[in-house]
């Protein structure tokens, strides 16, 4: 399913939470919605799912308005975490799957598969309330897609997960993508977005600062980050042509270049015809781009 937002606006009385949002998410894509707290991510998700109305603009699925879409095609992990505390893990997943119209045999196979993938086998017959927060979140995650939706929205799915569980979730998202599921998610952790997303939208106070492919965003800045290890002193590096700034990061220097064409002449100077241990010209990380575009800290 292709999702298209055109000029979407959401106002709460005088306050504009989402202001003229436009983007398209193609089938099988992983799309990241990023922005600081209060940027309008959850509001956008809720409008896409028709849990609240937009003030103006249109949201369509394959050209059809959401109100006419079979809800079983959609999956949603809301920001508020919650499962039935007294229900056992397996019962919980059976409940959610059957609620969304899954046949029991197929549902059981899916549950077996995802319980194993998320390393929850030992917790299968435990009541949800006895699980750690991270494990409860994994159960809720599985519940959001156990019915095999075509389009899955995950609001901050990585928050509260340890690095091992974060990897399990990343792999699960990639597996769902392989199965053709379209995934839209938000995250404050830019490395997750960078590793997973094909496309993204960067929101600031309800306004889109960028919407498109990650590579196109990176190309806006170019390969202007040069990391190197050299004996050339800091004050000489600062004076080289094309160097905007130099930061020291442990035993390395990180240079910000005017543009990537200066890298070659810098290489000549710092290597001086000798072996050089590190000289790496890169795009800025998404985290650096985000901080530059949005300003301040992400959290
Ligand atoms: N029901 C409401 N009434 C009034 N204002 C609201 C309402 N819901 C959300 N807002 C405001 O709209 C803005 C966007 O909120 P939203 O929850 O979409 O942000 P978010 O990007 O999901 O933030 P976070 O990262 O903190 O979850 C915020 O300023 C919020 O206070």
TrEMBL record:
Keyword Nucleotidyltransferase: no
Record's keyword terms, sorted: ATP-binding, Nucleotide-binding, Transport
Pfam family of the protein (one): ABC_tran
GO molecular function terms noted in the UniProt entry: ATP binding; ATP hydrolysis activity
InterPro entries assigned to the protein according to its UniProt record, in alphabetical order: AAA+_ATPase, ABC_transporter-like_ATP-bd, ABC_transporter-like_CS, ABC_transporter_ATP-binding, DrrA1/2-like_C, P-loop_NTPase
Domain ABC transporter: from-to ranges: 3-230
Family: Belongs to the ABC transporter superfamily.
Name this polypeptide is given: ABC-2 type transport system ATP-binding protein
Organism: Ureibacillus chungkukjangi
């Amino acid at each position: 399913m292709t999702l298209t937002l055109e000029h979407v606006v959401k106002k709460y009385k005088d306050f504009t939470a989402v202001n003229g949002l436009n983007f398209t998410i193609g089938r099988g894509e992983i799309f990241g919605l990023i922005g600081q707290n209060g940027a309008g991510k959850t509001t956008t998700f809720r409008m896409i799912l028709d849990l609240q109305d937009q003030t103006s603009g249109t949201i369509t699925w394959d050209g059809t308005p959401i109100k006419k879409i079979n809800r079983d095609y959609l999956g949603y992990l809301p920001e508020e975490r919650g499962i039935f505390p007294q229900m056992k893990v397996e019962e919980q997943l059976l409940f959610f799957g059957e609620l969304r119209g899954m046949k029991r045999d197929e549902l059981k196979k899916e549950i077996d598969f995802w319980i194993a993938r998320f390393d929850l086998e030992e917790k299968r017959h435990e009541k949800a309330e006895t699980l750690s927060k991270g494990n409860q979140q994994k159960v809720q995650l599985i519940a959001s897609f156990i019915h095999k939706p075509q389009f899955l929205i995950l609001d901050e799915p990585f928050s509260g997960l340890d690095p091992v569980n974060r990897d399990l979730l990343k792999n699960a998202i990639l597996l769902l993508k392989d199965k053709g599921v379209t995934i839209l998610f938000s995250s404050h952790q830019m490395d997750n977005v960078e590793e997973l997303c094909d496309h993204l939208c960067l929101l600031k106070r309800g306004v889109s600062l960028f919407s498109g492919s990650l590579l196109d965003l990176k190309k806006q800045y170019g390969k202007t980050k040069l990391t190197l290890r050299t004996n050339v002193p800091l004050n000489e590096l600062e004076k080289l042509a094309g160097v905007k700034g130099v930061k020291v990061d442990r035993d390395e220097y990180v240079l910000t270049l005017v543009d990537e064409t200066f890298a070659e002449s810098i290489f000549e100077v710092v290597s001086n015809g000798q072996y050089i241990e590190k000289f790496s010209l890169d795009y800025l990380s998404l985290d650096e781009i985000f901080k530059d575009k949005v300003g301040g800290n992400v959290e």
